[in-house]
Specification:
With about 230 residues, the protein is mainly α. It is built from 8 helices and no strands.
């Protein structure tokens, strides 16, 4: 991707993510019950950590150049927080639910080996460990997508169901970005960089739609003060 376009994408993504973080913390403030407040708190923390990771990466890239390995700690923290948000809402997952999650992760690992790792091993001048390290993110994304779907499916008839649906789509967009981005630095797929950035941007917008939907419902009066009740 052109350097100017890449910089523009980074600035736009950072500003939108900053706005999303503010919106998520406002959702925490507007939550009425402990379970919903915990959900939004964990999601707000996740995107805050992600934003700090993006900021640290950007500063390092401008000062030194390249991608520092320690930034992955921020992104790993994001995954753990999002997983916690979905797996604790509306109640703690059962043993069966965790077993299903493990099965999904194993299936994702197999799909990553067949669809991502093996096809690029002959093309990329990297060790198997480095390639698998990049494939880790799409595998984790599959786990988050399952967690989001499971959470939304249980709450689809509730008021928060629409927000959870938007969050599920956000997880799908984020996962798609990482699946696409896997090949970009390994086989120099220039178009992939643009597509991945668009998917990451879509994730931010979809999560923003989830927060907006929740806040809109909170700001809409349930009963009109002028209504007459029998």
């Amino acid at each position: 991707m052109d350097e100017t376009l890449s910089t523009a994408f980074y600035v736009l993504s950072f500003l939108l993510t900053l706005g999303l973080v503010v919106g998520l913390w406002w959702c925490v403030r507007r939550s009425d019950d402990a379970g919903t407040r915990r959900l939004w708190t964990l999601l707000a923390l996740a995107w805050t950590v992600n934003l700090l990771g993006d900021l640290a990466w950007g500063v390092y890239d401008m000062a030194v150049g390249g991608y520092p390995d320690w930034v992955d700690l921020f992104y790993m923290g994001r995954y753990l927080l999002v997983l916690a948000a979905f797996s604790l809402y509306p109640q703690v997952w059962s043993r069966g639910r965790w077993l299903a999650w493990v099965v999904v992760m194993l299936a994702a690992a197999l799909a990553s080996w067949l669809g991502l790792v093996r096809p690029v091993l002959d093309e990329a001048n990297e060790t198997l460990g480095v390639v698998w390290g990049r494939a880790l993110y799409p595998i984790l994304d599959a786990g988050l997508l399952y967690a989001a779907v499971a959470c939304w499916w249980r709450q689809r008839g509730q008021a928060i169901g629409i927000s959870l649906r938007w969050l599920t789509l956000a997880m799908l967009a984020y996962g798609a970005a990482n699946w696409i981005n896997f090949r970009v630095p390994l086989v120099e797929w220039e178009l992939g960089g643009l597509l991945a950035n668009l998917c990451w941007l879509a994730c931010t917008l979809l999560a923003g739609a989830a927060a907006w939907q929740f806040l809109r419902k909170k700001s809409t009066p349930q009963d009109s003060p002028f209504s007459v009740t029998g």
